[in-house]
Amino acid sequence: MTVLIVMRKEIQEGLRNRWVLATTLLLAALALTLTFLGSAPVGNVGASPLDVVIVSLSSLTTFLVPLIALLISHDAIVGEMERGTMLLLLSYPISRWQVIFGKFVGHLAILAFATLLGYGAAAVALAAMGTAIDAVSWWAFGSMILSSIMLGAVFVAIGYLVSALVRQRGTAAGIAIGIWLLFVLIYDMALLGILVVDQGRTIGADLLNAALLLNPTDAYRLLNLGSEGASSVSGMAGVVENVSLSPAMLVAALLAWVLVPLAAAMLVFSRKEL
Question: How far apart are CA 146 and CA 158, in angstroms?
Answer without folding.
Answer: 19
